[in-house]
Amino acid sequence: MTLNNLKIGIIGLGYVGLPLAVEFSKYYSTIGFDLNQQRIQQLKAGEDKTCEVSADDLKQAQYLDYSHDLKDLAECNFYIIAVPTPLDKHKNPDLTLLEKASATVGKLLSPNNYVVYESTVYPGATEEICLPILERESQLKFNQDFFVGYSPERINPGDKDHRLIDIVKVRN
Question: For position 129, which CATH number holds?
Answer without folding.
Answer: 3.40.50.720
